[in-house]
TrEMBL record:
Organism, scientific name: Gordonia soli NBRC 108243
Annotated catalysed reactions: myo-inositol + NAD(+) = scyllo-inosose + NADH + H(+)
Family: Belongs to the Gfo/Idh/MocA family.
GO molecular function: inositol 2-dehydrogenase (NAD+) activity; nucleotide binding
EC number(s) on file: 1.1.1.18
Domain of life: Bacteria
Positions of the Gfo/Idh/MocA-like oxidoreductase C-terminal domain: 137-339
InterPro entries associated with the record: Gfo-Idh-MocA_inositol_DH (IPR050424), Gfo/Idh/MocA-like_OxRdtase_C (IPR004104), Gfo/Idh/MocA-like_OxRdtase_N (IPR000683), MI/DCI_dehydrogenase (IPR023794), NAD(P)-bd_dom_sf (IPR036291)
Protein name: Inositol 2-dehydrogenase
Biological process according to GO: inositol catabolic process
Gene that this polypeptide is encoded by: idh
Domain Gfo/Idh/MocA-like oxidoreductase N-terminal: 3-123
Job of this protein: Involved in the oxidation of myo-inositol (MI) to 2-keto-myo-inositol (2KMI or 2-inosose).
């Protein structure tokens, strides 16, 4: 039978997941929709046959016609909603962050571990991107030998006005935190944020761009330029460098076109004007990681239907990311390398 899903939060990500499940995901249907603004949920439900709106998120989780939950609600509401999923034994795909601070994230890890059964997956979608998957495969196969450093670029054309400097760490850089942990299978031990001159086009007071430096348990270094007000488009690149070679993902090498420069017409002499060569850059994460999200949700649905519930990053990964980001936020203030303060995984049986 088809997996009946409640989607909580129908903003950009939630609505995208509803469309994905309805149009592309096999073996799942959206039965319940919820949003802080009921009219938003109602408007969407009107377009999804078989779905209905439940206004209280906790009631939506508990509903008997809901087998599994997607949380695309704002971060501060996650803790309560995750606890409700654990209480009702409902598998949940939680968009990042797991919760908004380290202590509550650890609490969630412990509560799930006590159940003795994994229910929580965290939406770090880059792990489902084909290029990142391939990169991980080559690294694990030893093609580049021992990996020494990685260089990342994470650019957004713009962010909502509510974004402050610490959100650049907790909301954006968090993906490089997860990518580092995913690619190298080890924890990040220190974080330093370096602050270049701010983009004159960025809102007053926003420290953008930022350069982040991670060191890992084994001594690898990962640097990231995170720049969220470029005004250009959505760019995510990662390069890893090892003893035997290097690899690069995120070159945006889709269709490349060559065509006449409009100025050519005007000049009257085509020989003196350069032609145009190039392609498009995805406007946002929805397009850039569209295939990754499809893959992520399909694999999650399959896992839940098999009874495995999770196929990808879990609560521990959400907690580890929160701990690294907390060190990052501290470094944003101090300017120094800050140590990541986290418990060892083995101290929580079942985590
Ligand atoms: C957003 O929340 C995301 O998760 C995107 O992947 C990231 O690029 C963006 O900076 C965040 O705000």
């Amino acid at each position: 039978t088809e997996l009946r899903i409640a989607v909580l939060g129908v903003g950009m990500m939630g609505a995208d997941h509803v469309a994905r499940i309805t149009e592309r995901t096999k073996g799942a249907v959206v039965t319940v929709l919820n949003d802080y603004f009921p009219e938003k949920a109602e408007a969407l439900a009107a377009t999804i046959p078989g779905s209905r709106v439940i206004n209280d998120p906790l009631d939506a989780i508990a509903d008997p016609e809901v087998d599994a939950v997607i949380l695309a609600t704002p971060g501060p509401t996650h803790e309560k909603q995750l606890l409700a999923c654990l209480e009702h034994n409902k598998p949940v795909m939680c968009e990042k962050p797991l919760t908004t601070d380290v202590a509550t994230s650890l609490e969630i890890v412990k509560r799930e571990a006590e159940l003795g059964r994994k229910l929580i997956q965290v939406g770090f979608m880059r792990r489902f991107d084909r290029e990142y998957e391939q990169l991980k495969g080559f690294i694990d196969d030893g093609v580049f030998g021992q990996i020494l450093v990685a260089h990342c670029v994470h650019r957004n054309p713009a962010v909502p006005p509510s974004f402050d400097s610490s959100m650049i760490v907790k909301d954006s850089l968090v993906h490089e935190v997860d990518v580092t942990r995913f690619l190298f299978d080890e924890e990040i031990t220190t974080v330093q944020i370096i602050k270049p001159s701010a983009n004159p086009g960025a809102p007053e007071g926003l420290q953008d761009p930022q350069i982040a430096l991670f060191t890992t348990e084994s001594g690898r270094h990962v640097d990231t330029e995170v720049f969220v007000t470029t005004g250009v488009a959505y760019e995510v690149r990662t390069e890893v460098v090892g003893e035997l070679g290097s690899a690069f993902i995120g070159l945006d090498q889709g269709l490349v076109r060559k065509h006449r420069n409009p100025a050519q017409q005007a000049s009257g002499d085509g020989r003196k004007v350069a032609g145009i060569w190039g392609g498009d850059i995805t406007p946002s994460f929805v397009e850039r990681f569209g295939d990754a999200y499809d893959n992520e949700i399909q694999r999650w649905v399959n896992a839940v239907r098999r009874g495995d519930n999770v196929d990808g990053p879990g609560a521990w990964d959400g907690y580890a990311a929160a701990a690294v980001c907390a060190a990052g936020v501290k470094s944003l203030e101090s300017g120094k390398a800050e140590t990541v303060d986290m418990v060892s995984r083995s101290s929580i049986p079942g985590a």
